What does this fold into?
Amino acid sequence: MGDEPTSTDLPPVTATHDAIVIGAGVIGVSIAYHLAAFGARNVVVLDRGQVGSGTSSQSSGILRTHYSVPENVELARRSWQVFDSFAAYLDDDEASAGLVKCGYLIAAPEGAKLAPLRAALMAQESQGIAVQVLSAQEAALRLPLCRFDDAALIGFEPEAGFADAYLVATGFARAARRRGVKIVEGVEVEGLVFERGRVAGVETSQGCFAGATVVSAQNIWARDIERWTGIETPVRAERHGVLALAGPEPYTFSMPVYKDLGSPGMLYCRSYGGTQMLVSEGGAGETLAEPDNQQGDIPIDDVLRVGAQVAERFPSYAAAGLASSWTGVYDVTPDWNPVLGRLPDVPGLVVAYGFSGHGFKLSPAVGRVLAQEVLGLPTDTSLAPYALERFRSGRLLRGRYGAGAVS
Ligand SMILES: Cc1cc2nc3c(=O)[nH]c(=O)nc-3n(C[C@H](O)[C@H](O)[C@H](O)COP(=O)(O)OP(=O)(O)OC[C@H]3O[C@@H](n4cnc5c(N)ncnc54)[C@H](O)[C@@H]3O)c2cc1C
It folds into this structure.
């Protein structure tokens, strides 16, 4: 496929590939799997760490189609079908996404979030997604730990829940390898190689790799693209704390994920290990000067602030103990939605970054449409709304709930 680099233009080359994917997170390995499934040969994935060791393994793993941006609903809907039949989709009986199909409850009190919630539920229905409007009593039957007395609208999505992003990444990686994809761990991509005005490979800590197309799935490290090409890459690294609380009553696997649009931090909660509550805030976090997915401190003030919101909504959890906590880093764009597709000014380069804390639930469909784009096939859904160009044109994918991963 495409022009092959010549030895006079390039440093020594280790192999020639149809596509080189930078990043073995859940997005990169999904792209690689789909490239191979569509028939691409000689696909290589390069990662300085290991499969899933970037930000994917920090994911809370929540899967829902609830979005206020219709394009995201469609990608999430298509992705859910994959999560729901992961082993069959990959043709690997042993593959598991670790799916817990507990449903997704989302509630808003009177106020600014009510109209967006109503509009999003109606839009989901019009896109063929099963959603229900519940009374406070019906919601309490599903999530008895929680009080719904101030809720003006409660939506419930039965085909939703959470899964394990590490398992999904390794599942895609294994299926990709079985279709001939080479995944090279422990290799740092240091730059792009250009030939006759287009990208023709990458320079790495282990020499050069030549390829017809390079796909960057680098998440918080996507600013490399700006250094390598001079093209602005509007993404910043934002650290978020996640708490696991042990309360007097268990938050079981049969209880739904809960999104509390009424809390100041737009909390999300789900079962953790079948007994504890995983909880975090859905808004902005701490912007890091440099991308770094190492564990950071969670200030005690943050723990107290989240704890107070939990106690307000889940009264028995006023007595909960902090069982564990960790941090994870989002790759946030100005409109909290990803940049997907080709960069017109850099032929041969395709990007997928800026998932802004909600990329796991989109990863199967994103991998598929980007593989289609790389191979010049018609894409299942249009990539145009996700183009980098939107930050110049002002046609932003702005969610109606304001800044945050619910988008
Ligand atoms: C705390 C937290 C909670 C989340 N909760 C949810 C949720 O509930 N639901 C949901 O849908 N999403 C959630 N997300 C978001 C989701 O997990 C991410 O969008 C997704 O995992 C990103 O995958 P990725 O492949 O883009 O990135 P990553 O997994 O970070 O992979 C990028 C890879 O690129 C590699 N790399 C980068 N630059 C180079 C280079 N120069 N050379 C070699 N390798 C390189 C890195 O080593 C890394 O492995 C959450 C994220 C966090 C942090």
Summary: Residues 22-28, 46-49, 53-56, 58-62, 165, 188-189, 217-219, 221, 224, 240, 242, 328-330, 355, 357-361 surround flavin-adenine dinucleotide (CB under 6 Å). The two ends are 38 Å apart (CA to CA). The CA atoms of residues 175 and 290 lie 33 Å apart.
